[in-house]
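Lab notebook, bench 4. Still working through the backlog of constructs that have no structural model yet. Next entry is a single chain of 225 residues. Request: give me the structure tokens for it.
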Amino acid sequence: MIVLHNVCKEYPNGVQALAGVSLQIPERDFVFLVGPSGAGKSTFIRLLIREELPTSGRVFVDGQDLARLRRRDVPQLRRKVSVIFQDFKLLPQKTVFENVAFALEVSGYSRQDVQQVVPSTLELVGLAEQADRFPDRLSGGEQQRVAIARALARRPAVIVADEPTGNLDPATAAQTVQLLVRINALGTTIVFATHNSELVNTLRRRVVALEQGHIVRDQADAGYE
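Model written out:
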């Protein structure tokens, strides 16, 4: 599903965020991406959604070379690869239903499709009864579930979770991870960037560790260190 071949990324200020990174993430895999701040995790994520292009090397998603992707085809890529952020990025003036619906509307879904997809997605993440609430009436864990529902609604092949538990208490963080495990079991590839060693050690899935732009460990059924 995801292939990086000898990828380097150097920014104009001279910072080399990634250096010779090669990696394969098969369909339906669940991967923890770990490492200290500045290790290259955020750059890795931006490459996957084509917010950035590599300085050298190649990035493939579902067989597509992202450097050769036409600008008009980038929205189609972002249907395949959805991102969940640490700070939720919900629209405060829209209800739970409307937040999820908006992600579909901007992707070109019809009104009929929106009316079918949103309720089933909210049911999956346990928010069917909160559909008419606004974000400021939800707990942090509920807001993160809205963000997951928004990412999931487009039925992406890949969900990239960028520190999704960073603003949550331990119990709520564990619930969020278990939700992503369920989504993975339904067939979605999960790339989960995190500093949370306890979550990684508890779940014990594949761990890819970055340090100073290099992959220093790629291990199945592993802990944080």
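Notes after review: The first helix runs from residue 41 to 48. The chain is about 35% helix and 25% strand. Flag for follow-up if needed.
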